Amino acid sequence: MPAPDLVTAELTLTGRITTASNATFLGSIGDVAVVYKPIAGETPLWDFPHRTLALREVAAYLVSQAFGWDIVPRTWLRDGPMGEGMVQLWQDQDPAQNAVDLVETDHVPETGWKPVLEGQDANGRMVTLVHEDSPALRRMAVFDVVVNNADRKGDHILAMTDGHRHGVDHGLTFHRDHKLRTVLWGWLGDPLTAEELDGIDRVSEGLRGGLGRNLADLLSAEEIASLAARCARLRLAGRFPAPSGEMSAVPWPLF
């Protein structure tokens, strides 16, 4: 049987993710499992223009493709049961893996993990937020800086069985002002690798060509200019940035 046309074939809803702050549905297009977020179900925010989150999700996918790292699963705009929205291929993550975790502070692994911050749990025990020290997660951290991700929670990182890491939920991205809030601060100040620098260069080059033209349908000219400026600043600095500004450097909740 031929694969369904993911843009025009019928999208059938099969469930709803009730923990999401915006209307988020599970669905299928033929036998292809997808996530569907209708624009009509977006909750208005004070700092992001209304009815733009789905567009930003698609823009994040396009930038991910320009990086060449397959961070964001295939994402596109199409009509659905509740009108136009963002549709993304569903990913079956490995329940035995956690790329980000909370561990007792006395039991933080000495290798393979990066501590981010400490605090107390509901029982008064000291716990530490940690994330794995892996090339896949480093690439996601670079991606987040470039797209100005304001909501990189631990559960927005999908650990795949083969070691790949997907990032999802990119509605709060591409703001013209600094908004970076992430749990991936473990490499603060570390030099970027040649591979990471090459990825930034691919995005910068794309912004001067096809990527820039495609993003013009999804983001404002000012947001695209800010994206290009972030690429240039990160490339010039050549290292992971530190938190800046008065806002929290991590999202809440963390997961």
Q: How do you describe this structure in short?
A:
By secondary structure, the chain is α+β, with helices and mostly antiparallel strands. Helices cover 25% and strands 21% of the residues.
Describe it.
With 255 residues, this protein is an alpha+beta fold. The protein folds into two domains: 11-95 and 134-237, no CATH class; 100-130, no CATH class. The protein has five helices and ten strands, in the order E-E-E-H-E-E-E-E-E-H-E-E-H-H-H. The chain has helices at residues 53-67, 135-147, 194-207, 210-215, 221-237; strands spanning 11-16, 25-29, 32-38, 75-78, 85-89, 100-104, 113-120, 126-132, 157-159, 165-167. The strands form three sheets. A five-stranded antiparallel β-sheet has the order 1-2-3-5-4, covered by helices on one side. It has a three-stranded antiparallel β-sheet with strand order 6-8-7, with no helix packed on it. Helix 3 (194-207) packs antiparallel against helix 5 (221-237). The N and C termini lie far apart (39 Å).
Write the layout of secondary structure elements.
Layout: E1 11-16, E2 25-29, E3 32-38, H1 53-67, E4 75-78, E5 85-89, E6 100-104, E7 113-120, E8 126-132, H2 135-147, E9 157-159, E10 165-167, H3 194-207, H4 210-215, H5 221-237
Helix pairs in contact: 3-5
